[in-house]
C-alpha cells in the first residue's frame, strides 16, 4: 500500500530534551516536506527536500533540523524543544513535476507537546 | 515569498446549499493551486487542483475557478452534504516552484 508513515504519533516531552520524528514514504517520491499545523495558521512549511542530500528551509525553520540521506526517509529533529514548538506535525511527499511539489501525500500526523 | 490568504475562516451552510471559499495569493508567477480537505482527526487530502493555464475545473460537486489577473481562486461546493463538513485549505506554488504555501483554512459545517 502506498503510504507515508510517521512515528511517533503522539509525544509529550520536556523543554530541552532532543527528539526525532521519523517520516518514511514508499512511493519513490523525490519531494518531501515537513509542516506544522496550528489553529488559525493553516499548514506552515518547516523544511523541504527536493531529493537525496538536498534540503532547504521553509517558512518556519527555526529550532528544527532535517536530513535526507535516503530517498524514502526524511526525519525531523528538534535539538532543544521549547513549548512554542507544541503543535501537530505532518510529513508529506510528492512526485516532483518540473522540479517542484505536486499533489502532496500526507502522513498521519504527530501531535507533540513540549512542557 | 508567497502569501496566501483564505476567507472565510468558518462557514456554516444548510445541507443542499452551496459553499464558496476564496483565496488570494501574492506571487503573480504562481502556477499551481491545490485544495485540500481535512476531516476531524485526519490528514489533509487533495480534493482538486488547478494550474495557471486553466480558468476553471470541475469534479462532480466540486469546482475551482482561477482569476490570474486578480490573483485569486475559489472553491465551490454545490449540493452540500454532511460529509462535506471539514477544514479546507487552499495553497499556491510560487515562482521558484519548490514549495507550497497554504492558506489559514476554512472550517465548513453542513447542517442537516
Structure description:
- The complex is a heterodimer of chains A (115) and B (112).
- Chain A has 115 residues and is mainly β.
- Chain A is 0% helix and 53% strand.
- Chain A has no helices and 13 strands.
- Chain A has strands at 4-7, 10-13, 19-25, 31-38, 42-51, 54-57, 65-66, 76-78, 87-94, 96-97, 100-101, 105-106, 110-114.
- In chain A, strands 2, 4, 5, 6, 9, 12 and 13 form a 7-stranded mixed beta sheet that branches. A 4-stranded antiparallel beta sheet of chain A has the order 1-3-8-7, with no helix packed on it.
- In chain A, strand 10 and strand 11 (100-101) form a beta hairpin.
- Chain B has 112 residues and is mostly beta strands.
- Chain B contains no helices and 11 strands.
- Chain B has strands at 4-7, 10-14, 19-25, 32-38, 45-51, 56-59, 62-67, 72-77, 86-93, 100-102, 106-111.
- In chain B, the strands form 2 sheets. In chain B, strands 2, 4, 5, 9, 10 and 11 form a 6-stranded mixed beta sheet that branches.
- In chain B, a hairpin with a 4-residue loop joins strand 7 (62-67) and strand 8 (72-77).
- Chain B starts with a strand and ends with a strand.
- At the A-B interface, strand 5 and strand 11 of A face strand 4, strand 5, strand 9 and strand 10 of B.
